[in-house]
Every structure is written in C-alpha cells, then in structure tokens.
Write a structure and sequence with these properties.
Elements: H1 2-17, H2 29-39, H3 66-70, E1 83-95, E2 100-105, E3 113-117, E4 135-144, E5 152-163, H4 179-183, H5 193-215, E6 219-220, E7 226-227, E8 259-260, E9 263-264, E10 276-277, H6 282-292, E11 294-302, E12 315-324, H7 328-349, H8 351-360, H9 365-374, E13 378-381, H10 382-391, H11 408-418, E14 424-430, E15 446-454, E16 458-465, H12 470-479, H13 488-495, E17 501-507, H14 508-516
Parallel strand pairs: 3-5, 6-11, 13-14
Antiparallel strand pairs: 1-2, 1-4, 2-3, 4-5, 7-10, 8-9, 11-12, 12-17, 14-15, 15-16, 16-17
Helix pairs in contact: 1-2, 5-7, 5-8, 5-14, 7-9
The chain binds 4-amino-1,4-dioxobutan-2-aminium adenosine-5'-monophosphate and magnesium ion.
The site of 4-amino-1,4-dioxobutan-2-aminium adenosine-5'-monophosphate has 24 residues, from strand 12, strand 16, strand 17 and helix 14.
Protein name: asparagine--tRNA ligase
Organism: Triticum urartu
Enzyme class: ligase
C-alpha cells in the first residue's frame, strides 16, 4: 500500500513539469491531474517541492528450473549434493511405508522432479494436502536416485503447500484424458504432458522464427490488427464496430443501429467506415518492404470462414516475410530455408519433447522431420500437379480439373503418396482462384503464386511474387470487383519506386501441427477460436 501511494505521489508530481505545454498535443495540467486523481484517490496532497524517495526495486534473479538440473547430458548427476528449491505443481503423490514420493512439475520440461519425503521432513504434516494439481515449494538436496526412471531426485528438507487442489473435483487425473475432453478444460490442460510439450515446442518455433529472420537481415514489422482492407479479397472478415455497444438492458437494440437507405450507416461508426480484424498483414508488410527491403510480420490474423476442420481456426498466428528486389524463385528459396531452419532448431533444442511426440503422438515424427531438414524440397507447376492427380486414377471426393482449386485431399495425395512424405511446392496457379495482388505470368492465365504443401497438414505456406506494375494491378482490382479507391496507398507503392517483390504467409498453428504430430489445430494454440466456441 505504502509503495502504491508513493508511486501515485510520484505520478502527481508530473503535471507540475507540464504546466507550460509546448504544443496542444499535451492535455492541460488540469485535465491530467483530475484524471489521475480518479486512480489515486487515496493519495495525500503533494508536499511542495519534496523530492520523492522510494524503496529500491529488488534485483531480478533467474530461478533454477527443473530443466536446468535434469536437462543436461548427465541428467542432473553434476547436481548431486547441491541444495535446490523446486516450485511447481504436484503430478502424483505415492505414499509408502517410510517414504512418500511426490512428482513435481514446474513446466520447464517434461520431466518431473521426484521429491522424496520422510516423516522427518518439515511440512510432512501437510501430507493430506499434497494432491494432484496442488502447488508446492520444495527445498532439499539433490541425490542420486535408486529408481530406474531418473538419475537424480530431491531429498526434501521442507515442503510448503502453496495452493491446495481438491482431488475430488480437479479435472485432470492420472489416467489419460482425451484431447476432446481437455479442450473443455483448456485453462488446466497446459498441466498435462502433451500440452506442456506443445507449448514449449510452439515457443521454440517462435524463437527460431525470429532468429532465422533476424539473422538473415529481416526487420520485424508490426502490421495492424484492425484494417479497412480485405487482403485476400475473400470476404472472410470479422467486423470491428462500436455501433452495437449501445448498452440497453439485455443487449443492443436492433433499431438503435444507425442506418441509411436500409443499410448500416458506417459513417457513424468508430472509424467512420467499415473496419475489420485483419486476415493478413501482407499489404502493410509490402509498404515496409518497399523502404526497408526485407521485413517480416508475426502476429495474430483472423478469418470468419465457417470451416469446422482440423486445419482451420478463426484466430491464428501468421508469419509473413516480404522480400524486396525478389521474384518467385527467391520466395520459394526463402520459404524452404526458413522451414528447414525451424525444424532443425526444434530437433536440436527440444529433444525430450520430440521423443515424447515420437512415442505418444506420431510414431516416426523425428525421422520425418530429419528428412525435411535435410532433403531439398521439390517444386512443380499447378498444371503438372493437375496432370499428376488425373494420372493417379485415384477416386477423389472433389473434382480435379484445370482451373479448380486443389482441395486438402489432393494436396495430401501429392505430398504423402506421390512424393513419399516430402514437402512439395506447387507454383503458377490459375489467376481466377488466387488473390488480386499476385503477379500475372506471361501466359495471361496463371499468376506467380506458390503453395508449400506438407504431409498430414496440406497447405502450410501460401505466397507469391506481387504485381509491381500499376496498370496490371489496377486491372486485377477491377476484375476482382474491388474498389480501387480504398487501395490508393497500396497502389502508391507502384507509383513511387516500385520494385519486384515477393513474400509468403506461414500459418503458425499448422507449423506446430506439422512439428509435433498433433492431429487437430485446436490443440496447437492455447485457446482455440472456432465457429461456435470462444470459451476461455
Ligand atoms: O494462403 P493464405 O490465405 O495467404 C495469405 O494470407 C497471404 N496474404 C500470405 C502472404 O503472401 N503474405 O494464408 C497463409 C497461410 C496458409 O498457408 C495457412 O498455413 C494459414 O495461413 N491459414 C490458416 N491457418 C489456420 N486457420 C485458418 N483459417 C487459416 N487460413 C490460412
Ligand atoms: Mg492459401
């Protein structure tokens, strides 16, 4: 409380310095101090000209986590005899006649720390509270373990139960729960082996993504989440509006929504025009690539497509690099190198979790990923892919014909059967089935697009060389019935210093699926958003 009051006092000194604002962008001192008073009502009046003093902020110290103890080559042998404090959640508690074994997991790795308690242990009287799910702090000394499962364990001198967990209602019990059930307790599922491992591998993939692009000279750009343009032109956008926030009892009244000629009057909305959650950061990414050369975005994107499949989310994360002075070949090379880099990274840095996936989720995934990391990717044209599918004589549910988009079953046939599990890039798609911004090929029928397909997931990456010629781009906007005026700034890039450029988008959750073997995309993101479900 004292620290909070001191902080508020500190804040309240600031208006004094702003008493003579240099320009009108600064709120008046009066406005500032009255706003602050609202949040700091309990603060005493400011003593004139007092120099505030405060308590020093403590030093940040990195805590030792179980992964650091057990994760090395020696599995913790070098720690024997050393003192250690473990903070984590109880996975199991097994009481034997003279000793009790408590498995504690702190989330840093798959392995638990086996903590050995005896009646002499301080806190032993709390033994009835040491249930699955409880949080504990355990002090002890690392010792060689007699059991075959681990090299070391913790001989506990003191245990404190920090937060109890009622064993009769805690939903995650030792027996294996189905992934469907775990989706209904998404707030607790990170405490399972599978979801802990997915979270760590997802984190490693994100880190490796930044590392790959940063090391390759790309600059990370934050593209906006709210946008007025539809990048993919597919009309799969969520509206962002305050027109519905008129908080009448029981919700917004339909007839209170402003309208004009029977339609919603967007001019009265927050942005004075329709606005949406972005489906892709690409168009904004292109503006920065047209100044900084090579950039990438990495952020959330949203699609209101009503696809209840194992590969679609309404909210997903996308990585979108954009390369200036580059064509489709450069784009494909970048996509392949990036994918191989992140795959190698997790094979080298997430060994324990990858062995877990190999054993429990998808047998052989390590070999499969090793192949991906090592072998060159192949590429073929869309026209050749159609010939291949027709020539396969396989019965597909969806028709195969030049001009129609490839469906998931076709993509999976190409990678899983025709190319025996290797990623394949399909390029030069018919222009009618691709977005307006893709560069037209000289044949007048196809565009310089590429999709990278991988086994089990299908399309992991979608990209293209962009149309850098103003007249062609305007023609494509017209053909696609898109309003040229609202793309004025995008067209400007073609008016001022246009360059050949190319980029792609990788769906991050599909990458997590590919890298972990997890079947359903809803298990590759902490809190999935899908049609009919936005719980948690
Ligand atoms: O192929 P898409 O629609 O391409 C774009 O959005 C381009 N603007 C990207 C670019 O060139 N900068 O989407 C790119 C990737 C897909 O290949 C897929 O991996 C993923 O985003 N994706 C989805 N992932 C999960 N749920 C969905 N509903 C997805 N839609 C696309
Ligand atoms: Mg696509």
């Amino acid at each position: 409380m004292a620290a909070a009051a001191a902080a508020c006092r500190l804040l309240r000194l600031a208006p004094r310095r702003l008493r003579k604002p240099r320009h009108s962008l600064f709120p008046t001192p009066l406005a500032l101090s009255s706003a602050w008073r609202r949040y700091c009502a309990a603060a005493p009046p400011v003593a004139a000209a007092a120099t505030p003093t405060g308590d020093a902020v403590g030093e940040f110290r990195r805590r030792i986590r179980v992964a650091e103890v057990k994760g090395g080559e020696d599995q913790g042998a070098a720690w024997v005899g050393k003192e250690l404090t473990v903070r984590g959640w109880v996975r199991t508690c097994r009481a034997q006649r003279t000793v009790t074994f408590v498995e504690v997991n702190d989330g840093s790795c798959l392995s638990n720390m086996q903590c050995v308690l005896t009646p002499e242990t301080e806190g032993y009287d709390q033994i009835d509270s040491i249930n699955t799910g409880a949080s504990v702090l355990v002090d002890g000394v690392v010792a060689s373990s007699q059991g075959g499962k681990q090299k070391v364990e913790l001989k506990v001198s003191k245990i404190i139960v920090i937060g109890e967990s009622d064993p009769t209602s805690f939903p995650i019990q030792k027996k294996r729960a189905s992934r469907e059930f775990l989706r209904t307790v998404a707030h607790l599922r990170p405490r399972t082996n599978t979801f802990g491992a997915v979270a760590r591998v997802r984190n490693a993939l994100a880190y490796a993504t930044h590392k790959f692009f940063q090391d390759s000279g790309f600059i990370w750009v934050s593209s906006p989440i709210i946008t007025a343009s539809d990048c993919e032109g597919a009309g799969e956008q969520f509206y962002v509006t305050t027109l519905l926030s008129n908080s009448a009892e029981g919700g917004c009244l339909v007839n209170s929504i402003p309208s004009k000629d029977g339609r919603v009057d967007w001019s009265q909305d927050f942005f004075c025009k329709p606005a949406f959650l972005t489906v892709s950061g690409q168009l904004n990414g292109e503006t920065y690539a047209s100044a900084l050369s090579d950039i990438y975005t990495f952020g959330p994107t949203f699609r209101a497509e009503n696809s209840n499949t194992s590969r679609h989310l309404a909210e997903f994360w996308m990585i979108e690099p954009e390369l200036a002075f580059a064509d489709l070949n450069d784009d494909m090379a970048c996509a392949s190198a990036y994918l191989q880099y992140v795959v190698k990274y997790i094979l080298e840095n997430c060994k324990e979790d990858m062995v877990f996936f190999d054993t429990w989720v998808e047998k052989g995934i390590i070999d499969r990923l090793n192949n991906v990391a090592e072998k060159n990717f192949v590429q073929m044209s869309y026209s050749d892919a159609i010939k291949l599918l027709i020539g396969s004589n396989k019965k597909f549910e969806f028709p195969v014909k030049w001009g129609l988009d490839l469906q998931s079953e076709h993509e999976r046939y190409i990678t899983e059967v025709a190319f025996g599990g290797s990623p394949v890039i399909i390029r030069d798609y018919p222009k009618e089935i691709k977005a307006f911004y893709m560069r037209q090929n000289d044949d007048g029928k196809t565009v310089a697009a590429m999709d990278l397909l991988v086994p089990r997931v299908g399309e992991l990456i979608g990209g293209s060389q962009r149309e850098e010629r103003l007249d062609y781009l305007e023609g494509r906007l017209d053909e696609s019935n898109l309003n040229k005026d609202s793309y004025w700034w995008y067209l400007d890039l073609r008016r001022y210093g246009s360059v050949p450029h190319a980029g792609f988008g990788l769906g991050f959750e599909r990458l997590v699926q590919f890298a972990t073997g997890i079947d359903n995309i809803r298990d590759a993101i902490p809190f999935p958003r899908v049609p009919g479900s936005a719980e948690f």
